[in-house]
Every structure is written in C-alpha cells, then in structure tokens.
Specification:
It is a single chain. The protein has 24 helices and no strands. It is mainly alpha-helical and about 475 residues long. Among the domains are: about 130 residues, Tetratricopeptide repeat domain (Serine Threonine Protein Phosphatase 5, Tetratricopeptide repeat, Alpha Horseshoe), CATH 1.25.40.10; about 70 residues, Tetratricopeptide repeat domain (Serine Threonine Protein Phosphatase 5, Tetratricopeptide repeat); about 70 residues, Tetratricopeptide repeat domain (Serine Threonine Protein Phosphatase 5, Tetratricopeptide repeat).
Amino acid sequence: MARSKRSPSRPNASAPVVPSNAERAPPPRDRLELGLKLVTAITAVVGATLGLLGFLGSQRLSEESRAQRATVDCLAAESQLDRAWDALGGAPLVRTIQRYTSDVRRLEEATALTRDAELRCPDVRGRALRIRAHVLRAQGRSSDALAAFLEALKASHGDAWSELGAGIALSDLGRYEEALAALERAGTAEPRDTAIQLWRGNVLAALGRHGEALAALERVLGLDPRDALAHAGRANALAGLGRDGEALAAFARCAELDPRSAKPHHDRGIVLRRLGRLEEGLREFETACALEPANALPHHGLGNVLVDLDRPREALAAYDAALALDPAFALAHAGRGTALAILERWPESLAACERALALDPGDAHAHNGRGNALRSLARNEEALAAYDRALELDARLVQAHVGRGYALGVLARLEEALAAYDRALALEPELLTAHVGRSIALHVLGREDEARAAEETARRLRR
C-alpha cells in the first residue's frame, strides 16, 4: 500500500509564535544606542515640562504682581480722593445750603486730585466724578454740577451719594419735585443718613409742604439732637406753618449749637422782618454779616430790612456788598432796584430790575419794580405790561394791582383803574396807596360822594 505523501509541517495556528534567538533581543551595541535614545527623549520631556512649569509660574507671579500693583494704585487713588474731599470742605459741604466759595485754590486742588486718582484707578471714577460735581456746585455752576452728578450716578451704578448730589443740584435749580424724587431714592438706600433727610426736609419746605418738612427734620433730630442745621430747618418749617414763636425759639437753639454760623441769625431776621419787628431783624442780619462777611445772603437780608426802615442809601450799600460777592444774585439786583426807586433814581432803578429779570424772569417783584420805574418815566403802556406780567406770576401781589391802577388812571382808563384798586383792597383792606388812588379816580369820574369817602379813609390811615 502506497504511503500518502505528507504535506510540509506547519506551525500550529493556536500555539504562540516563539522568536528565534536572532529575533529575541538586539545585540549589545544596539541595546546601548536604544537606551541612549530613550534617556535623551525622557530628558527632553522633563526639560519641556520644567520649562512649561517655570513659564506658568512666572505668569502667575506676574498676574499676582499686577494685582498687587492695581490694589496699591487704587488705595493711593482713594487716598487722593480723601484729600480732594477734605480740600473741598468734606461732609459739611454736602449739608450746607450755601453753594458758593471764593477759595479758588482749594477748588482747583480738589479737581486736580480727582483727575489724577481716576488715571491711577478707573474703579474710583464714580467717586471722582461726584467730588468734581461738588466742586462745580461750590463754584455756583449748578447745571454743570447736575450733569456731573448724573454721570457719577451711571458710573457708580446708582449709589445713594450720587443721588443725594443730584437732589442738591436740582434743588439749587429750583426743580424741587425732581429733587425730592432723587432724595427719596437716596433715603431708601440710606435711611439713617442725616444729610439726606436734612435736604429732604428743606425741599419739602420749598414745595410748601411744611408739615411733612417738619416731620422729616424732627426725624433728623431724633438721630442727632444736636444737629444745628436740622434745628434751623425745623424753625423754617414752623415759620411756614405760622408757628412763629416756636420758630424763633428753634432759631435761637440753632445759634447756641453753632455760634459761628450766620444761618440761624439770617433766617431769624427774615421771620422778625415779616412780623414787623424791624429793629430786632436788623440786629440779626448785622450779626449774620459779621459772622460770615463773605456770604451774600445776610447782606441781601440786611438791605431788605433797611428798605423797610426807609434807609435806602444804607440799603443800597448792603445790596452792593451782596453783589460784590455774587454778581448773579438776582434778588439783590431787584432789591437794589427798590432802593434806587425810593431815592427816585428811576433810570438806574429800571436797569437794576431788568438785570434781575435777565437772571430770573420769573420774579414777580422784579416785574413790579420795573413797572414802577417805567411809570415814573412816563412810559405807562410799558408799565402796564410789566404789572400784568407780575400779576400773571403772582395774582396776590397787592402792589402790582395798585401800580396797575395808577398806570390805567394816567391812560384815562378810569373804570379799569378803579377795578384794579378794588382788587388791591380785597387783598389788603387798609392799604393807604390803594385808597388814595381810588379817591383820585372817583374825583375824575365825578363821583364826589364816593371820592370823599375814600379820602376820609386815607386820612384815617395816615394818622
């Protein structure tokens, strides 16, 4: 039987392949080269890793250094702003009603410090803007100050102190409703801050809401019973409510707490003048002028009471002193016009009233004074227009009704003149000038019985 032909032997597919001795390991020289390459690769990886770690470490140190530098810069900027605030007058400036200061050097110093601080640290921009806004207010630039406070409000994301500043500037501009809204927002954020509540009380008083003003100011005194400005504000609120005796006592208390302040003497003088206690009022204004000779307000008050005392030349000097300190003081220009009218210096009186109206077109008394000057210069049609404007602004301005009656009489509009005098007497029945003018108009109209009765009333009032 033939043997089958065997196929060549093949390795078992399932058995592991065992390398031959030649394949099992490289020769010694190859192994050395391979080891050297491996060491070189490991060294390169380690070096790269160490380099990366060093770079990252230096970056971290650089970031920490920058952060520390920024912190130092911001601390320095805050210190500069503290110095700027102190140069400007600090917290008392926020509380005072007086806006102006003649210390130009201090204002320039404060401005320069705020600008440098802002360059050092942008994070202080809101506070820097706020301080610069107070500088503008101290310069009497209330519109510019308001714009700066509003910018500070945006930069500081609506903080209470920028709201307070905006409220103060709005109050300076006579925009009392808007001022009150800003102060309400500030007070909501900082309910225990006395400066905010003090200004809120003052603005409420300016709006004629004297009861609310009194309550606000008494809250301030609940927080600080020795707050002199709150006592002064409370006194003014009491005066607005007709509680004059309490108001005078409150002003006296304010003067005790702050003996160097002109404000309580100035405000007390206003109440005394209104009560007809002119000599006492004169002494208060003189004291206020002596305490704060660079403050225009007491000089203006002194001029007013001197006019009432029929001392026009001294009044003129007082108004001139006020205007030397504040040339844009509209009420002082109007007062000057009144003093010049008493001295019968009519062209100068007219110029003073027109200057007052250029600064404050809404001053009814200045329109009335202008009407008096025009009438005395025989410009009666213009005078009539001036009186009409005064009465549009204040229908209860009794002297404008009388002046209107005189102008109408000269223009031979006698029935209208009588109506004007009657309106004046409805407001003030014992007004001598209205009875005199009425008697003249009645004589010209031939109504002799009525004219004699008017003359008799005028004679009785002269006694």
